[in-house]
Amino acid sequence: MVHVEADIPISHRDEFERAIVDIIAGERPRMDELDRGPAGIKTRAMAGLQTIGKAINDHPTTGAKRLVRFLACPYNGQEYPFDLTALRGLDTILANAWLDYLNYDRLGINEVHTHLANDGCDLHRWLGEYRIVPASSRS
Asked: Which long-range contacts (C-beta less than 8 Å, at least 24 apart) are formed by 117-125?
């Protein structure tokens, strides 16, 4: 047994209590999934990409541009650098989708465009629609 004492801001109390209940109950779905190896990581990543793609298509005027910028970075980070502060304010579902894809991308198995609809055509269409240009084209 471990005894833990912590000073938690009152604003984080509910979240902290839920986390403790999950730990005590042995439920750690996110951590368990992340530990399952490449197959589990890929499954979560593909679901994450679907979530991101759906958000871009369903809400083109509310934050979609930053999601397209995020997808462009693993596609070609030299030409499409991404400032991580652009992800502040994402809701939990989109933030987790982003993290799930990023966790898969670190494995270097396949490029992001190979997992998007139309073998990357959607990514290129989005880049054009949101006027996101490669760094080498900017003057």
From this structure: 117/53, 120/75, 122/53, 123/68, 123/71, 123/72, 123/75
| Sign of torsion over alpha carbons 115, 118, 119, 124 | negative
Structural tokens at position 126:
């989005």
- The reported pTM is 0.70
Tell me the per-residue pLDDT of 111-139, one tens digit each, with 9 for 90 and over: 887 888 777 788 899 999 999 999 998 76
Long-range contact list for 59-63, CB < 8 A, 24+ apart? 60/129, 63/89, 63/90
Structure tokens at 34: 């992340």
